[in-house]
TrEMBL record:
CDD domains: M14_Nna1. One of its GO terms (cellular component) is cytosol. The keyword rRNA processing does not apply. This is tubulin-glutamate carboxypeptidase. The active site is at 940 (proton donor/acceptor). Its main location: cytoplasm. The lineage of its organism: Eukaryota, Metazoa, Chordata, Craniata, Vertebrata. Keywords: Carboxypeptidase, Hydrolase, Metalloprotease, Protease.
Amino acid sequence: MAEEEGSGLQVLLSTLQSSSDKAAILTILQLLGDLLSVGTDRRIHYMISKGGSEALLKTFVDTSRTPSPDYDVLLPLLRLLAKVGLRDKKFGHKALELEALDVTLILARKNLSHSHNLLHCLWALRVFASSVTTGAMLGINGAMELLFKVITPYTRKHTRTIRAATEVLAVLLKSRSNSRRAVNRGYVTSLLRLHQDWHSRDTANSHVLIRRGLLLCLKRITTLVSGREAFLAAHGMETLFSIAQNCLEDESMEPVISVLLEILRQCYPKRPLPLVTTCSAYIFPVPGGLHSVPTCAATEEDFEDDGDEMDKDSDLEDVKDQGDDLETDMEKLNFKPGLDRPEEELKQYEAMCLELSCDFEELGSKPGNDLTFEVLQPANHHHIPVAASSKQHCLNKDQREDTVQTSLLSMVKMGKSTAHPSSKKRLVMSTYQHVPPNGLGVDSLRNDISDIQDFLEEDIEAISCPRMNAFFSISTRLDKLLHTRGKNIPFHDPYIYMAKARRTKSVVDFKMIAFPDLWGHHPPPFSQSMLERKRGVQRIKISEDVRRLVQPRDLVNRVVFSLDEPWFEYDLLVNADVNSAQHQQWFYFKVSGMRAAIPYRFNIINCEKPNSQFNYGMQPTLYSVREALLGRPTWIRTGHDICYYKNHYLQGAAVTGGASGKYYYTLTFAVTFPHSEDICYLAYHYPYTYTALMTHLEILEKSINPRQIYFRQESLCQTLGGNPCPLVTITAMPESNSTDDMEQFRHRPYQVITARAHPGESNASWVMKGTLEFLISNDPVARLLRENFIFKIIPMLNPDGVINGNHRCSLRGEDLNRQWLSPEAHLQPTIYHTKGLLHYLSSIGRGPVVFCDFHGHSQKKNVFIYGCSIKETLWQANCPVGTSALLEDISYRTLPKILDKLAPAFTMSSCSFLVEKSRASTARVVVWREMGVSRSYTMESSYCGCNQGPYKGLQFGTSELEEMGAMYCLGLLILELKSGSCSHQLLTRATALLNDEEDVLGHHLQRRWSRSSVSELDDEPACLEEIDYTSDVSSDQDGSIPELDRQIQECVSNQDEAEEEDGARQNRNAIL
C-alpha cells in the first residue's frame, strides 16, 4: 500500500514539473494542498523524502521565468513552498541550487505595488532565510534594501504585508554578516524611529505584531558588539525603557514587552561580578594537585563577545540538538564486563560483607527468649503522613497521633494521598499564619512567653550558633532550654549531634553549629501550596536593573556584604564550590536583627543554572529560632515576589571552559519575617547535614532489636577530607543457626542504594532518611523485605561536599557522578570503593537486583526515574541499526510502573530510559553496562513539588520526601513478587499479609507462571525529557511553523470569502 501511495505521489510531482497545462497544474496543486492540510507533518516529510521540495521549486522557477508569469499558478505554488519549506531543513540549499532566490527577489520587486502578490513572495523569502547561509546570500543580493521599501512608517494600509516584511527581516538578521551590514547602513536608527512611530500612533494596539517584528530586528542586530554600540549611541536604552514603563501592566502588549526587555537586558553593559576573583574562597590541597581550578579574574576579552550561538553564518540544520547526545555506538551500549583494577583488590570487600560469613552462634535459642534491650526511639515509620481516603477529608491532631502506626499497605489501600484534594483548603496553610500581629506565637507555652522573651532578648544570638569548643559543649542555658523547650524529634538528639559535629573535619575548620541542625526539624502538620507567581515580577526586576543604568539617581546602586546594616534589599554572592570557580546554587545563611511585618528582599546574583523551579512555584525554606523555642522547630517554605532571571554579570571564559557569552542569573525573593529581633535561617532547600546523617545512623542502630534486625554500620572508606563515608547493611537475622536458615540468610539477593553524590541535593538525603527508617521499622512490608533481601546502603557518597557547603563537587572541584568510569582510590575514594564493592558482589555471583542512586532535580517537578535501554535509545535517535533483532530484558520498566501506581509523588511520564553520551560516566550507566544490572537507576526528586496526582499543586515537605523513600521500598517488594524468581514461600507470606488488601495491590502480584513474555514497548512514553521551562519569555518565534501556517490559511480563507462576495455581487448585477 505504501509503495502504491509513493508511486502515486511521484506521478503527481513528475506531472507537475513536466506539464504546461494550466488546469492540470492547478488541479495537482489543489490536490497536494488538500493532502498536506490534514493529518500530521508526517505527510509533508514523506513528500520531502520523495523529492517534493525540488519539484515545487523547479515548477516555481520555470513558471516565474515565463514572459508573463501566471499568478493564478504562482500564488498557490508559493503557499505550498512556504508550507513544505518550513519543514525541510535543507530547503534553503535546494532553493539556492535551483536559483529560486533570485527569482523570488525579482518577483517581489515587480510586485511592490501589488500587496497580495508581494505577501506571497515574502512568505517564500522568510522560508529561504531560515537557513542562515541562504539568508546571508539574500542579504548580499539586496533583500534588506527591498524590505525597507515595504516597511513604511505608520499606515493603516497593507499592514499584513508590512508585518510579513518585518518578520522576514528579523529572520535575515540571524546572519551575522547581515547584522553587520545593517549596522553599517544605519538601520539601527531607522528601526528605532519606525518602532517609535508605530508605537506612538498605534494607540488602539491593533498592530502590536508589527512593532514586535521591528523589535526582533533590533534584537538580532544587538547581538553584535557594533550593534549594541549603535543602539546605545541612538539612545535606544532610554527610548525602549520609556516605552516599557508605560506598557508593563498592559496584557495586550505582551508580544512587544517580552522582546523589548530582552533587548534592554542584552544591551545593558556587561560587567564582571563585584569580586576580585570568582574562585572559591577555600582551597583544599588534594593528591595530584588542584583539579582544573581556572584563572578566575575576568579579562577584557570576556566583554567583547558577539552574542549568542545563533550569530554565526552557519546553517540551522548544522546546530546540534538533544538527539545528538544519544549514544548510538553499539560497542558502548552493549554489556561490557570488566574490572578497572586488579582482581586481588576485590578481596578487601569481603570485610564489608560479613553477613555472608558470620556464624551467629548466639542464635541457638529461639529469637526473643530472655531478650532485653533498650529502644531509644520508636522504630515505626513515623515520617509517613497520615493517609486519607476519598471519604476522609481531614484529620485532627488526635487522629494523626492515632494513625502514626498505620502500616504502609493500609496507607496504600486507603489512598495514595496524605492530603486529599478536597481538604487542601484546610490543610494547606500560609507561612506562620498562626502568628498574631505582636510577632509572638501563641500555643501551650502562653504562660511562659514572657520568660522566653526575656531569654531571647538576652541570649538568642549566643544560642543561635553554638560553639564546638569543648566536649558536649552545650552551654548551661542552652542545656536548660533543651530540657524545658526541646521538642521530641524522632531519631534526633542534640547531644549526639554536638559530639558528632566535633569529629567532623572541614576545610574551613568550622567552630559553630547552625541552630536548626542542632535543635532539629519537625515536619509541619500541613502542606504548602506552590507559590502563585505574580504576573510580571521578572520584568519588574529587569526593569529595575535597567533603571539603575538609565536613571542612576532613582535607585541605590549598591552591593551589601553585611546583613547587619539597615537596608531592606541585599545583593548576595554565593561562594563557589571548594577548588572550583563554579556551581553557585546552594545557599544556607543566617539573618538577624530584622523587624517583623516588613518585607526584606534578597538577590542572589551569581547563580549559574539557566533556569530554576523558583520560576514555577518553588520557595526557599526558612527556620525561625523564636518559633523553634516556642515549640515549632520547623523548616517551612517562605518568600514572595520570587523570580529567577538572567542578569548583566558575565561569566569569564576561563570559568566556562572557554565558552563565551554566558551570563549569571539572579534569584530574587522577598521575605516577611514572623518576629522582630529574631534569628532566622534561609536555605535553598531543607538542609540535611553530614552530622545529621551520622547522628541518625547511631540512633537507628540503637533503636533496633539486634536479635531480629541485622544492622551494621561501618566505614566504606575515608574521604579526601578525612571523614568516614558510612556503609550500612540491613537485613533480618536468621531465625536460627540451623543449616536451612543460614543457607536462606546467605543467599538473600542484594539491593544497593546510594545517595547524595551531589551535595546540594539535600532532598535525596530526606528520601534516603525515609528509606532507612522504613527498613528498620516494624511494618510488615519492612519485615518481608529484610527477610528476603540484604540492603547495602551508602547514604552519602560525597560527605566532604556536604560538610563544606558545595553544591555539586567534591573537594577536588569535580562532579563525583561523572567519575564512575575510571575512579582512583586516592582521588575519588568513595566512588572507587563503592564501585569496588559492586564489582565484588558481581564477582561472587551476588550482583544487586536493583541499583538506585537518589538525586534531586532543579528543573522538573515530581519524582521520576532514569534507567537504561538500548532499544529505546536507538529508537529515539532514529538509528539505522535494526532494533527488532536486539534482545533486551524489558523488566527495567517494571519498577517505575509500580512506583507510578503506588507513590503519590511519582510519575511515569517523566521517566526516561535513554543512554546519553554525556552520562556515560554516571553511576546509572556504568553499573548497567559494566556490572550488567538491567535495573540500574537514578531516582530524581524535585526541589519543588508535584504537578500531578494527589499532591498536585503542592510543594514537597520533608514528610513527602521521606514517604517516597518508604514507597520505594514497597516497590521493591512488589517487583520481587512480579518476578519469575520469586520464591513460593515469599508469595505465600505476601498473600497472607495482603489478605483483604488484595483488591488494591492484587493487580501488582503476578505468579511466575503467569509472567508474560510479550514486549511492553507498545506503551512506551515519550523518551525525551519535556522541559518546558525557559528563563526568558519565548519571544524568538519569528520562524514559527504554526504561525506561518495560520497566516497562509487566513489569507486563503479571506481570498475565498472575497471570491464569494464577488460572485454574489455579479449575481445581483445579473438579476438587476
